[in-house]
Amino acid sequence: MRSILHDDSAVNIEIGYILNFLVLLIFAGAIVGPFYLASDSSSKQAMRAGYTDLGSEIARDITNMYLSSAHLEDDVNINIERSIPLTIGGRGYSVLLKNAEPGGMASVEIEEGGLFGSRVSTVLTSIDAGVTIDSIRPVYSGSGELIIGMVKNSTGVRIWIK
């Protein structure tokens, strides 16, 4: 039995190199894999933070428009043009102003482009439920700009983005 364990003549050298290389690949994959997953997770967190910041800025602009016109008796027509980043985290995105659902509030939704894109929603807490939100289509980041508009007249308040 001892002679079989110490006999090197039965092992092909090339097969030994291939087996050593396969073991090296398995260990390298086991070490590198978790680091790749952690870095991918941190980039997604950074993108979500960017979407949250942009949604908060748009919500702030809408809130400022709405509150500054709340006590005015006259007809009001306000348009704000703002630059938006073409990409956040290397990916395009879309911005949509959603109308309040029953029992809910209007919101600004930013959705990452792609099949499995994440979505961030920023609630417009200071906008009354009677405000009409006209946002039929999303605005895509490729345009690099976003126009926020508001009209207040005798029929009510209407807010949109395009």
Roughly what fraction of the amino acids lie in strands? Answer: 25-35%
- How far apart the termini lie comes to 82 Å
Total count of domains: 1
Number of strands: 8
Q: What is the spatial order of strands in the main beta sheet?
A: 1-7-8-5
Low-confidence stretches: none
What structural category characterises the helix and strand content? Answer: alpha+beta
For the biggest sheet, the summary is:
4 strands, mixed
Put simply, the count of helices is 2
Shape: rod-shaped
Helix content: 25-40%
Mean pLDDT: 84
User: Strand-and-helix sequence, N→C?
Assistant: HHEEEEEEEE
Integer-rounded radius of gyration: 28 Å
Give a verbal description of the structure.
With 162 residues, the chain is an alpha+beta fold. It has one domain (48-161). The chain is built from two helices and eight strands. It has helices at residues 2-5, 13-69, and strands at residues 76-83, 93-98, 107-112, 119-123, 132-134, 139-140, 145-153, 156-161. A four-stranded mixed beta sheet has the order 1-7-8-5, covered by helices on one side. The model has no long low-confidence stretch (mean pLDDT 84).
